[in-house]
Amino acid sequence: MFVLFGLAATPGWANEVEDEERAVERQQESDGQATAGDGNTDTDKADSAVADDPAEPAPLPLPLLGRQVEPGSFATLHWTPDQSFASIATPVPVLVAHGDKPGPRLCLTAAIHGDELNGIEMVRRLMYELEPDQLAGTVIGVPIVNLDGFRNGSRYLSDRRDLNRYFPGNKKGSAASRVAHSLFSNIVRHCDYLVDLHTGSQKRVNQPQLRADLDNPDVVAFAKHFGGMTVLHSPGVTGMLRDAAVKKDIVAVTMEAGGPNRLETEAVSYGVQAIDTLLENLGMRKASRFWSAPQPVFYESEWIRATQGGILLAEVELNQKVKKGQVLGTVTDPISNTGSAVIAPYNGRVLGMAVNQVVHAGFAAFRIGEEKTTEEVEAKAEKATREKEQKTQPSEDSPAHDSSAPEPEADRADDLSQAEEEESHSEE
Ligand SMILES: [Zn+2]
Hints:
Layout: H1 20-33, H2 42-46, E1 62-64, E2 67-69, E3 73-79, E4 92-98, E5 101-110, H3 118-129, E6 136-142, H4 147-152, H5 175-186, E7 193-198, E8 204-212, H6 217-223, E9 230-233, H7 241-247, E10 251-258, H8 265-281, E11 298-305, E12 310-314, E13 321-322, E14 327-332, E15 339-343, E16 348-354, E17 357-359, E18 364-372, H9 374-391, H10 416-424
Parallel strand pairs: 5-6, 5-7, 7-10, 8-9, 9-11
Antiparallel strand pairs: 1-2, 3-4, 4-6, 8-10, 8-16, 11-18, 12-14, 12-17, 13-16, 14-15, 16-18
Helix pairs in contact: 3-8
The structure holds zinc ion.
The site of zinc ion has 5 residues, from loops.
């Protein structure tokens, strides 16, 4: 049904994720101006989700990582993050399906945190079911970004830094910052869209969900393409890949599914189905499995913290609806047997939670989401855009990814990142 990417020569895909009506309007306008309006009515567009317009120029070979990928072909390339000396550097595999037809370029990154395995399996399943001769556009998949962490079963890089706090990176910065810069400049900046795949971290599990900056209308429109997957408003923090990407006009979201250090087939299948739906909605191909794509449900959310230290025992389950005042769990001091309850502050749903464990006071135990309607979310995004436009005069084309700006996080103590993460609970 979505035909928004039939216009091969239109520059700047990134700004063109829109809902169907607006896309059709634009299509009609530009049909009038450019190519002959060949009776392209709504009805005959509807059955050509994968554009097959003879007037469209065939895609060119894609130059990436020192290679040329021919249209209609699949390639395995290698990215070498230049953090170590060349003789021992291990190249990271990058899978590319370059379609025969023009279309957007979608990037999938997984295991930026080396212990988050579900995304690796999602990228494998997705990439190997693509048929480049049937594909409109290009899919670039990096199944294991943090190869060192993956080998060690660790979230972090080998210097114990969290890679997802250093984007877009700096080629003269810390080791982590250089890896980030290399990934960003060699791969990510070639993408129109990015889905960064994660799981919950540190003994917390998440209901499969997208994290997206719902103050950004392009991101809102993109998030609606994933079928019925829950979407959580999360502006992101500086240094995260999706935040850095959005700042460069690459429309990006994070997908969270399951927990670290394990492979959860249900979470993997759910994620694959959501991205299959995305490919269909972007007009890149017809989905192999039909998901009747209900509207996504949007949430604002907050972590509810333990007020004392002790043994945390949950009384609710993931995805359960809870009422204001309901006991979510208890924390009990195992020696004095004094305890307290963690209480839901408003009606909502459990979107993330800690597994039962020993916690300290202030530990973020339950993430409770409050449902928002699509209309509320869109109105808010439009308002945020207007406010931003009023504040900043348009100063287009900021000077590329190779930023010489100071790098605030480069020099902090190694284990500070974990403490800060504990503080912000962004997890991604
Ligand atoms: Zn992660």
